[in-house]
Every structure is written in C-alpha cells, then in structure tokens.
DNA sequence: TAGTATTCACTGCGCGACGCAGTGAATGCG
DNA sequence: CGCATTCACTGCGTCGCGCAGTGAATACTA
C-alpha cells in the first residue's frame, strides 16, 4: 500500500517536472536514464530502456535533438547505427530543477543511517531486477482478454 | 542512481501490466489507487489523484466504465457529483495479474526483517509527502523556458 | 428570498505521442 | 556472391489528452 502511493507520487512528480520544463514525461524519463550513465546510446537502446518501438524512439530523439538536449553522431564501427549523446550544458537545465529541489531530498536521505540507506538501496536494486523477469513472464503469458 | 533505475523499472512494469490487460498505463494507475482504498470517489478526486483535468478524467471513467471496471452512481447529497465505484469481480481480473506475480514479490519482502521493512516504508512515506510539497513549489516557480 | 458566483461533470475540438507497417542502407552468414 | 538480419527512419491512423465552453446544482450575499 505504501509503495503504491509512493510510486503513484513519483509518476505525478515526474509529470510536474516535465510540465515545468515544457517536455513530456517520456522525455524526462529518457534524459534521466541517459544522464545516469552519460555514455552514448544507440536509438535501439533508447527504445529498450523507455519501452517504445524503434520508430517512436526516433521521434523521441528528434524532440530531444530539436530541444538541444542531445546530439546525433554516426557510429564508425557500424554505419547503420546512430549514437545519441547528451549535451551537458543543456542537460544542466534539467538537473537544475533537481538541484533546486535537491536539499529537501538530501535531508530526507540524511535522516537515514548508512545501514538504512543500504537496506533501501538493496530493496530497490532487487525490485529492479525482479521487475525485468516479471515483465518477460507477463509478455509470455496469454492475455486474459 | 539506484532509485532512478528503480522508478524507471516501475514505469516499464506498469506499462507491461497495462498492455497485458489491454488498458492504458493511466487506467492501471487509476485502478491501483482506487483499490488501495475502495471507497467511492468523485470524478474530481480521480482527476486530482491521476494529475489529469476533469475533462480527461471523465474520459478515463468512460473507458473504465465501458470495460466494466467501475460503475457510476449519482450522489444524493450533491446532485452535481457522480460517485465512481470499482466493481470487485472485474477488478479481480487486474489483481489476478498481481497475484500471479505476487509470490516472487512476497519472497523479496520476506528476505527483509520487520525493522528493515519499516525503514523502507518510512522512506517511501516521507518521499511521498515530500513530493507533494515539491510539486507545489514547482508549479509556483516560473518556467525556465 | 432573489440574484450572483462558484463548482461539478461533461463535451467538441485540435494537438501530438504512439504503434504499425514498410523503406533503404549496412552488416553478418553460408 | 546471394540471402537474411538489423539498424534508423518515415507515412498513416489511432487515441489520450488539454483547452475552452456548456448546463445543472450548489453556495454565497444583500
């Protein structure tokens, strides 16, 4: 019950951040994941981590590129691929929102001990891993429709 | 970093559940919140807890009613209002998905002690509360556009 | 009590994100 | 050297959504 409200709140919060930046929740989600590990990604990788088709991922990159958040560059190893790289100075505008709201979150974390943070992080990590196997199971199960 | 991936995974998972049921992520989100406290809600309350406008909330209830997940009933106290009540037997189809996936999640929780679960729950509860105040702050801050 | 303002659910309208299916280019394989 | 596969990309149609307006019901005020 607690986690339901927690996750629902995150969806709303993500939406609010997106509105504030004039972006879409999907775009913010994508930028969040891109900056988590700022290495260049292919369009297909972006499609996988956002759950979209490659076609929609192309449009997503179109929007982000038009907004100046990322740049496209051809891959020298595989000329079919396109490498999408975030633009740090533009991304900073996004993280600025987080920084503004950061202290409150920081104090929330500071109230926990190291051991407690480890417990929380472990739970999230395991839930993250489990969700992937569960999603595969969902997709292989016939639909109840 | 851990929470980013955790939350991103939830979005994908929610999407997968929605696809599996032939619904939209927003609809699943709404049903999840409705069943969290199965009391009847007005359309406006649904709009608030999903972050939609009242107009879109009307369409949302339309879809859910057409699918048989909820029923509309007039409010006797205030005849402007419409009370939306979930249909248990139909909702069961949704929770069946959770039940099927439940044991794995249960074992995830069982690996934690009571004290650890309390730490996690407390963190989620506080993050939930904080997100609301942060969203208000976001909305009152001028957009950087 | 009469008149105004507010709140509720609802409805056309247009926008735009998305999935689907197909395209061409580049790569890997036998 | 063919053939299948994979990649990013592109029209097309669908549909969820916000916006602005409607009528009905309620709350407020003189």
UniProtKB/TrEMBL annotation, chains A, B:
Q: Which SUPFAM superfamilies match?
A: Winged helix' DNA-binding domain
> Which Pfam families does this one have?
MarR_2 (PF12802)
**InterPro entries, per database record:** ArsR-like_HTH, HTH_MarR-typ, MarR/SlyA-like, WH-like_DNA-bd_sf, WH_DNA-bd_sf
What sequence ranges are listed for the domain HTH marR-type?
1-129
Q: Where is the signal peptide?
A: none
Q: Which domain of life is it from?
A: Bacteria
Kindly give the SMART domains that the UniProt entry links to this protein.
Answer: HTH_MARR
Q: Which PANTHER family match?
A: TRANSCRIPTIONAL REGULATOR, MARR FAMILY, TRANSCRIPTIONAL REGULATORY PROTEIN
Q: What is this protein called?
A: MarR family transcriptional regulator
Q: Which organism is it from?
A: Streptomyces bugieae
